Amino acid sequence: MHHPSNARSRHHSHIFDEGNPLAERNTLWAVILTAVMMVIEIVGGWAYNSMALMADGWHMSSHTLALGLSLMAYIAARRLASDERFAFGTWKIEVLGGYTSAIFLLGISGLMFFQSVERLISPVSIRYDHAIAIAAVGLAVNLVCAWLLKDGHSHDHQHEHQHHKHHHDLNLRSAYMHVLTDAATSVLAIVALIGGKLWGADWLDPAMGIVGAVLIAVWVYGLMRDTGRILLDAEMDAPVVAEIIEVIEASSVKAAITDLHVWRVGKGKYSCILSLVTSQDVEPDYFKQQLSIHEELVHITVEVNKTGHEV
């Protein structure tokens, strides 16, 4: 009996992304630190009547789940890397993790906005000294997590620079963005609490919650746009597409493109299906060789059709 998958595996590997072990390990530490701080902030915000602090705590609880999701995406992509059911590897598991994290962030943004508006309408007294202390600790934890994830981010870029390209680990970017938004809301909470303590401006606490919610929503838009385009294979406007067309047009063999499909299969790595028509006798391997100058093209399929008249 013929097994297509086995035949496919004998020809070449379909693992186009090597993963990011450093980012996976650092994300685990970020999950642990964020979970501990989440409990402290929620309990402290409830005990000391700080909306900004409590919002930051609930914000952090969703981040804990989202960071855990990013970690699970790394683990799943690594463990399923040799599973032949994935026609072009498991890298998109990481992208899916990033997209799902963005949805979490969007929910956080909405929750923070409505809770802050409610507190703005119905203010309560805040125990400022205790709330400021907890918010400061929260900021410190966020900065440590950001440093951990930035370290993995930098390692990722260093590896990619060896290939003379600059691409992003979107799963790591989503995790990094989560801790950055946490840090931003911690800063806003501290500013609001200090302002409220010094000037009696209780409205600053919920106002900063609204500012934080809007800031998060703006960041989320960019992450959802980038991950969504990859998941939907909506990247026919990527620079590599123009480069493919340029190679064919500059070829010594006159050929016309009748069909072209390009999609991403790894960080800065693309697969390409290309159909050509030409009046000359030429093998598909000729065009594959021409396209191989672009390192980002890691899987190329070329179909050549002969025509009786000159192209």
Summarize the structure.
With 311 residues, the chain is mainly alpha-helical. The protein folds into 2 domains: 4-231, Up-down Bundle (Alpha-lytic protease prodomain-like), CATH 1.20.1510.10; 239-306, 2-Layer Sandwich (Alpha-Beta Plaits), CATH 3.30.70.
Structure description:
The protein has 311 residues and is mainly α. It folds into two domains: 4-231, Alpha-lytic protease prodomain-like (Up-down Bundle), CATH 1.20.1510; 239-306, Alpha-Beta Plaits (2-Layer Sandwich). 67% of the residues lie in helices and 10% in strands. It has a three-stranded mixed sheet with strand order 1-2-3, covered by helices on one side. The longest helix has 34 residues, at 128-161. It is elongated. Residues 1-10 and 152-167 have low confidence and may be disordered.
